[in-house]
């Protein structure tokens, strides 16, 4: 294929892709709006085409027939005038036209016709009447179809005079067109209302499915029953089956972890009893430290693997929740400032969420002297900030600290001397609530950990 031919094919394709990109920007994004557009747009286009065809054919045909009759009446008057242009005949013609033809005529002195008026953008009567006068009368004329809405004024140049005729607009125009327009608009409105109601009923089951999936993602147990079209119900049943499999997998994992935890704790208990029965020496003290460290690591691993499995979200008072954290901090010998604003009632997994905040506070406590927790609840989100005055974390390492078992060698070390799972567990809990955790610079000079979960 030649280069010129390839170029000729490439241009339409590029134009077509550009057109669809622009259309995608303008087009609505919601399923309801798109479905309404799919239903309503063809309806509007169809009604527009029907209106155009009706006005272009039926109205034009009716108007042409009426214009032909009106022009024939004027041609007859002109013929009678040409046969006898006397003044008495003019009066007689004016009376006959007024009484029999419903046309007011008068004979003006001969002179130039008025300048032509601008043609209306859409006027069938103007075009039809002008064509008929040219075809039947063959004389110079002037026409005004828009000056007065209910009348048509025609001036025709005769031998020795100007015939001025004023007729009703209905004499040359199908004046009942508004009935068609009202019928078209009325039926379109009814069809659009029916389409909107139908689409709303079809979209509602999809929204219920989305709400159920979102609630399940936040750890809640949604009361969901598939409804709607067969395809939507099929998706709903697939969601229920997926929910059952996930819950069964969580139950199996929890059972397995409980078994492993029990067995390992039994072994650690044996170690502790054996060490307790042995004579205390430097070696036994080192072994005791290793056993304690092993137990602490085991609890951290199990907490990370277990996550928030088995716990159901509940409505709690966040103000009291944070106050309990402050009291716990006092019992452990450090100060914690707490501030809360907004509606205090929030749906979370209480134990898991407490572990999330405790890990963030414990991480801050390891590297800072002043710690503050500020929380705000709005219509959509619960946002908590854990601020400290410690050394902080470099901006390029803040994503890494959320990786399991990752530990910083300098500046800051989540779980110093531990497993490196504190922030990973906190992030996993926040995401199990449908939220996230981000790290930024704190106004206090250290690190700010922001927990943001939907409510």
Describe the structure in brief.
The protein is an alpha+beta fold and 455 residues long.
Write the layout of secondary structure elements.
Layout: H1 3-26, H2 31-83, H3 87-100, E1 103-109, H4 124-136, E2 141-144, E3 151-157, E4 161-168, H5 177-217, H6 230-277, H7 282-306, E5 314-317, H8 318-331, E6 337-341, E7 345-348, H9 350-365, E8 371-377, E9 381-388, H10 422-432, E10 436-441, E11 447-454
Parallel strand pairs: 6-8
Antiparallel strand pairs: 1-4, 2-3, 3-4, 5-7, 8-9, 9-11, 10-11
Question: Helix coverage percent of residues?
Answer: 55-70%
Q: Which quaternary structure do these chains form? A: single chain
Low-pLDDT stretches are 410-417
Number of domains: 2
As laid out across the biggest beta sheet, the strand order is 6-8-9-11-10
Report the β-strand fraction as a percent range.
Answer: 5-15%
Count of helix runs: 10
| Shape annotation | rod-shaped
Radius of gyration over C-alpha positions, nearest whole angstrom:
44 Å
Order of helices and strands: HHHEHEEEHHHEHEEHEEHEE
Structural class of the helix and strand makeup?
A: alpha+beta
Count all strands and give the number. 11
Largest sheet, in brief, is:
5 strands, mixed
Termini separation comes to 61 Å
Arithmetic mean pLDDT? 80
Structural overview:
The protein folds into two domains: 1-175, no CATH class; 310-454, Histidine kinase-like ATPase, C-terminal domain (Heat Shock Protein 90, 2-Layer Sandwich), CATH 3.30.565.10. The chain is rod-shaped, with a radius of gyration of 44 Å. It has helices at residues 3-26, 31-83, 87-100, 124-136, 177-217, 230-277, 282-306, 318-331, 350-365, 422-432; strands spanning 103-109, 141-144, 151-157, 161-168, 314-317, 337-341, 345-348, 371-377, 381-388, 436-441, 447-454. Helix 2 runs parallel beside helix 4 and helix 5 packs parallel to helix 6 (230-277). It has 455 residues and is an alpha+beta fold.
